[in-house]
Write a structure and sequence with these properties.
This protein is of the alpha/beta class. The protein contains 10 helices and 10 strands. It has a 6-stranded mixed beta sheet, with helices on both faces. The protein has a 4-stranded antiparallel beta sheet with strand order 2-1-4-5, covered by helices on one side. The relative contact order is 0.18. The structure holds adenosine-5'-triphosphate. The site of adenosine-5'-triphosphate has 11 residues, from strand 2 and helix 1. The site of adenosine-5'-triphosphate (ATP) has 11 residues, from strand 2 and helix 1. This is UvrABC system protein A.
Length: about 260
């Protein structure tokens, strides 16, 4: 997997949320995207996953032009994401949530599941088994029958990751997966993300917890006011004066920890 993003611009009225943003993500990395509030991180995610149309920019995924113009095309291209605000189907069980994610990858799709021919029933069984295995993978198997909205916050975040993994993405884009988690849940999350990377997936991560990002990411890009101010390995980036200034200027001292 290799994703090249070049020269992305995106404005909202008079506000330029992204200004000539370029980055390159390679296989097997956890790639961090950080920056103060309003820096443009989520906007870049939304552009990459077809929710916002960029004003300019090119995207190459595995040597092919990639045009993230619709959400289903993004999934088919092999990119899956989670959201800053959890977007599960709250009334469905944990297992059903993962099964919905899986339907993107299957032959019959949701309509087939409704019509229920024999082939569809067989496929539905396979989907269920696959979803169970994924719940196992994110250590939520015992919650398979729980309604999603009744799960703890940390578990809901892991469930979102399982649902995203169900599409068998090449690139898993996670928007603040640790938001609202307690210290123990963050340790568990870190282990899960490392396991996903070690199993050969590539992760793009927006995260406010700089300590978590610094410890986890192989490479990272820092945005400030819509511009890339630094790219590199965490050890370099955290020493970069522009990065320190951006965080201090925003009233934080998050980047000073190692
Ligand atoms: N749909 C929109 N309409 C208008 N302005 C927007 C829209 N989405 C984002 N913006 C603006 O674009 C800028 C970048 O926002 P964005 O949410 O991408 O930042 P962020 O780095 O993800 O911030 P945070 O860390 O607070 O989530 C902000 O000034 C924001 O107000």
């Amino acid at each position: 997997m290799r994703l090249s993003v070049k020269g992305v611009n995106k404005s909202f009225g008079g506000l330029q949320a992204l200004h000539d943003v370029s980055l390159e993500i390679v296989s097997g990395h956890i790639y961090g995207l950080i920056g103060p509030n309003g820096a443009g991180k989520t906007t870049l995610f939304n552009v990459l996953t077809g929710l916002y149309k960029p004003d300019a920019g090119t995207f190459i995924l595995d040597g092919e032009p990639y045009q993230p113009t619709a959400v289903h095309q993004v999934a088919r291209a092999g990119i899956a994401r989670t959201f800053q605000n959890i977007r599960l189907f709250g009334g469905m069980t944990a297992l059903e949530n993962v099964m919905v994610g899986r339907h993107v990858r299957t032959r019959q799709g949701l309509l087939g599941a409704v019509l229920r021919t024999r082939a569809e029933r067989r496929e539905e069984k396979e989907i269920k088994e696959y979803a169970r295995a994924l719940l196992d993978y994110v250590e939520l198997r015992q919650y398979a029958g729980y309604t999603a909205r009744n799960l703890s916050y940390g578990h809901q975040r892991r469930l979102e990751i399982a649902r995203a993994l169900a599409t068998e993405p090449k690139l898993l884009a996670l928007d603040e997966p640790a938001a609202g988690m307690n210290a123990t849940e963050k340790v568990d999350l870190r282990q899960l993300l490392e396991k996903i990377r070690n199993d050969g997936k590539t992760i793009l991560l927006i995260e406010h917890d700089v300590k978590l990002v610094m410890g986890l990411c192989d490479r990272m890009t820092v945005l400030d006011y819509g511009k890339v101010i630094a790219t590199g390995v965490p050890q370099e980036v955290q020493k970069d004066p522009k990065v320190i200034e951006a965080y201090l200027g925003a009233g934080g001292s998050e980047c000073q920890q190692s």
